[in-house]
Amino acid sequence: MAAKYGVDNPVPPWKSSLDGICDALDQSSCGASLLSLDLRNEEDALSATVYSGLPYPENRLVALAHSLVRRGLIDEAELEERLAAVRARLEA
User: Fold this and answer.
1) Could you tell me the residue ranges of all domains in the chain?
2) 62 near 53, Cβ under 8 Å?
3) What is the DSSP letter of 79?
4) How far apart are CA 4 and CA 84, in angstroms?
5) What distance lies between CA 46 and its chain's CA centroid?
6) pLDDT at 26
7) Using an 8 Å Cβ cutoff, are 66 and 24 in contact?
8) Rounded Cα gap, residues 12 and 40, in angstroms
9) Which residues contact 31 (CB under 8 A, 6 or more apart)?
10) What is the per-residue pLDDT across 9-58, written as a single tens digit (0 to 9) for each?
11) Which residues fall within 8 angstroms of residue 64, CB to CB, at 6 or more apart?
12) DSSP string, 24-68
């Protein structure tokens, strides 16, 4: 995707931010319940199967959203609102 859109850095800024948040949660007392091994394994499986047609690292992000919605940590309406807010900032 980076070559298609002429991007020099193939790792999008959101990927670095997401990795940092996950690392911080891994080290926190509340992170264990949010980022369990089961959740990580589920994301890996979804990335390799259901979302394998998406480019990396976007397939990882979609798999994470899928897992969070399925587990009730965020609902679809809230996810739509957040995506709309991000889209609005990008298009501004």
Assistant:
1) 13-91
2) no
3) H
4) 24
5) 12
6) 64
7) no
8) 20
9) 24, 25
10) 767 777 777 777 767 766 655 555 555 667 778 888 998 999 999 888 78
11) 18, 43
12) HHHHSTTHHHHS-HHHHHHHHHHHHTTTTTSPTTHHHHHHHHHHH
CA 6 – CA 82 distance, rounded (Å): 26
Q: How far apart are CA 7 and CA 1, in angstroms?
A: 8
Burial of 70 (0-12, 13-18, 19+ CB in 10 A): exposed
For residue 57, the tally of other CB atoms under 10 A from its CB is 17
Length of the chain: 92
- pLDDT at 87 (0 to 100): 83
- Between CA 42 and CA 52 the distance in angstroms is 13
| 47 touches 59 (CB < 8 A) | yes
